[in-house]
C-alpha cells in the first residue's frame, strides 16, 4: 500500500461525502449567476468532486515519477475513477441536470470494461487504462464539473458547455469502450 494507492483510496472515500453533500436537503442558500441560481450545496459538491478528480492526476504522477506503479494501482485507479464518475452522473440525474439515457450508456460502458478487466485478472493479467480511456475520464470530469456548477461561469453568456461536454463525453465513452474491447478481445476469446 504505497502513497499513490493511498491517494487512490482517498478518492473512493470521498465519494460517500460527495453523495451526502449533493443529496441531503442542505439549505445553505444560493448564488445568483445572471438569470440562474447556483445552490451553495451544489458549489460545495462541485468543489469536492473536482478535488477528488484531481487526485487521479496526482496518484498517477507520483506512481510514474517514483516508479511506484503496482498491479493494485492499475486495478484501483480506474475503479476509483468509475465509482466517482458513476456516483456524480447518478446524482446529476437525481437533481435533474443530466438525462438518464446518457448516464445509462456511460455507466454500462464502465461495467462492461470492468467485466473485461475481471476476466483478465482471472487469467492472471492486469489491463491498464488506455490513453483513450484516460481522455474519456477527463472529458467526463469536465462535463460533470460544469453541470454541477450549473454551467458557471458560462451561464452569463448562455453557452451550455456542460451539456455539450456531456454529449462529447458520451461519444468518446462509447468509442473508447469499443476500442478497449477490440484491443483486448483476446482476453475473452482465450479465457478458460
Automatic annotation (TrEMBL):
TM stretches of this protein: 12-28, 40-63, 83-107, 164-182
Domain of life, per lineage: Bacteria
Molecular-function GO terms, alphabetical: CDP-diacylglycerol-glycerol-3-phosphate 3-phosphatidyltransferase activity
Keywords: Lipid biosynthesis, Lipid metabolism, Membrane, Phospholipid biosynthesis, Phospholipid metabolism, Transferase, Transmembrane, Transmembrane helix
Gene behind this protein: pgsA
Catalytic activity: a CDP-1,2-diacyl-sn-glycerol + sn-glycerol 3-phosphate = a 1,2-diacyl-sn-glycero-3-phospho-(1'-sn-glycero-3'-phosphate) + CMP + H(+)
UniProt-listed PANTHER family: CDP-DIACYLGLYCEROL--GLYCEROL-3-PHOSPHATE 3-PHOSPHATIDYLTRANSFERASE 1, CHLOROPLASTIC, CDP-DIACYLGLYCEROL--GLYCEROL-3-PHOSPHATE 3-PHOSPHATIDYLTRANSFERASE-RELATED
Pfam family, one: CDP-OH_P_transf
Annotated family: Belongs to the CDP-alcohol phosphatidyltransferase class-I family.
Protein name per UniProt: CDP-diacylglycerol--glycerol-3-phosphate 3-phosphatidyltransferase
Lineage: Bacteria, Bacillati, Bacillota, Bacilli, Bacillales
Amino acid at each position: 500500500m504505497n502513497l499513490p494507492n493511498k491517494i487512490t483510496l482517498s478518492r473512493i472515500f470521498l465519494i460517500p461525502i460527495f453523495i451526502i453533500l449533493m443529496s441531503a436537503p442542505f439549505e445553505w442558500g444560493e448564488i445568483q449567476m445572471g438569470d440562474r441560481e447556483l445552490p451553495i450545496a451544489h458549489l460545495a459538491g462541485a468543489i469536492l468532486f473536482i478535488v477528488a478528480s484531481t487526485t487521479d492526476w496526482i496518484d498517477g504522477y507520483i506512481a510514474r515519477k517514483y516508479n511506484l506503479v503496482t498491479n493494485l494501482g492499475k486495478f484501483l485507479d480506474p475503479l476509483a475513477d468509475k465509482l466517482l464518475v458513476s456516483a456524480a452522473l447518478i446524482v446529476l440525474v437525481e437533481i435533474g441536470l443530466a438525462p438518464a439515457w446518457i448516464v445509462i450508456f456511460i455507466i454500462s460502458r464502465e461495467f462492461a470494461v470492468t467485466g473485461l478487466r475481471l476476466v483478465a485478472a482471472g487469467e492472471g493479467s492486469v489491463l491498464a487504462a488506455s490513453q483513450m480511456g484516460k481522455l474519456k475520464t477527463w472529458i467526463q470530469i469536465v462535463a460533470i464539473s460544469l453541470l454541477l456548477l450549473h454551467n458557471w461561469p458560462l451561464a452569463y453568456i448562455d453557452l451550455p458547455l456542460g451539456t455539450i461536454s456531456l454529449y462529447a463525453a458520451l461519444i468518446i465513452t462509447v468509442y473508447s469502450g469499443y476500442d478497449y474491447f477490440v484491443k483486448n478481445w483476446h482476453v475473452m476469446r482465450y479465457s478458460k
